């Protein structure tokens, strides 16, 4: 999947160098150790020749043997050390990219999250970053050491016979042109293969996130097909990449063999006409052979880089999604523990430019302390009110204030630390009950925890569970009932000791007894905190200090239950259908 960046970013190699830069010295050390291994290897034949020479002339071979053993041991140890240092450096590059990406994704703006697939983002952090390992070792180091050897060999060839060098280079450049056509195809196929992995991650996330619904709907077979199609797409593209990589490797091999034959022909003619002697031709041909390995290495580095570049581009796309600005736009006000005041001033908002407005000029004011309820048909824009207070989204026009201060001017972490928010579906994270309760305030002491467990009526549940607070709740809290999840979410919000408590249909799944108890708890909290509640059950809101009636993105009326029953037909109708017209 493409995250469709607005404009092209810097080339992938710049991003790669950015990740490699902190490790440049260990990378250089690893590369030098590899070169050293090659050099000690090259010395061995010389010593072997010496040894055979000694034997032939009846001399003692102890010296040569000793030297040979030292070289063998040195070659092995330097080689092992070199590959360890390189691999370790490459893993550090992967680590750096993973850390940078995960930090960044946690700071993404919610609209960017709305538009992306979590499974695809996950694939970018886990699978695409893994590819950086090979890019670092094979591409960077391969290009470095291979390139160095290549240059050295070409210089030697030039010294032996410049004419034959020109002949060789002409053949090699011809092959280079062919490679120029092949290499972009490797990149393209790799990009598609990685994208298919992203699609697979997204489908997996979709299915595993709702496996019960998939099973209940009997949709396993269709979902299986989707997953298999993504896996096969990745396979097809990887096979294409393999095909082009193989073609690239063999083009290089073919070029070298052609160069050999050409040099043999041209060189033979030059020997025949007496321009060069036969020794020069033999030496030059040997160099053509020597050229083979570094050229293969450089071509390998380039093809490997194409795979890595595709991954780098995908990483870069994720890093260019809009993230939250966390620094304050203006000097911070004094930290306060007082209940907050909230107001909307003519707020217009839509979720995206191509979507209809959800708020058409919403205004209301909530003083510190007390309970304010938001009611209205579903889709009226109630949840959106809370999202805007949390600054998950910014309004198109109008101002939202907390303590009289535009929320856009608040430092985000501080704004959010003032608020306890229980979302509409009361999300619970996998982990233990305790993890969930202390998510927003890890330093809570046991006494405060016990108090909140009691007021949210979770104490009974905790006592019943064999592992108590350490019970694991499962993915998204599936091992809890809906009502239990809601109470956990409320307790979590209360433990933050918020100055503003936002409850979005937070008691919708509770039974009557628990709901009544929670209503008393919330009324208690509202004496010292500003509480905003969204509720579709009017029984929850009749005792609110004020009720804001919303409809189709507008505030219809504000008043107490009694006032609204008399003054607002929509509210009166809601109340009537819930048999509450005369209560309150
Ligand atoms: P309520 O809570 O009053 O039922 P919401 O504030 O949740 O209503 O939603 C108001 C409108 O905004 C609905 O029509 C809904 O489809 C739309 N909406 C809500 N969330 C999003 C979103 N993340 N992206 C696009 N549209 C959304
Ligand atoms: Mg809602």
Please describe what this structure looks like.
With 584 residues, this protein is α/β, with parallel strands linked by helices. Among the domains are: 12-319, Up-down Bundle (ABC transporter transmembrane region fold), CATH 1.20.1560; 430-497, no CATH class. 62% of the residues lie in helices and 10% in strands. The protein has 18 helices and 10 strands. It has helices at residues 12-20, 24-56, 62-106, 110-115, 118-160, 162-209, 211-216, 220-272, 278-319, 382-389, 412-417, 433-437, 446-455, 459-464, 482-495, 512-525, 561-567, 569-577, and strands spanning 342-349, 359-366, 370-375, 397-402, 405-406, 419-422, 500-504, 530-534, 546-551, 554-559. A 6-stranded mixed beta sheet has the order 6-7-8-3-9-10, sandwiched between helices. It has a 4-stranded antiparallel beta sheet with strand order 2-1-4-5, with helices on one face. Strand 7 (500-504), helix 16 (512-525) and strand 8 form a beta-alpha-beta unit. The longest helix is centred in the middle third of the chain and has 53 residues, at 220-272. The two termini are 54 Å apart. The mean pLDDT is 89. Bound molecules: adenosine-5'-diphosphate (ADP) and magnesium ion (MG). Magnesium ion (MG) binds at residues 382-383, 424, 504.
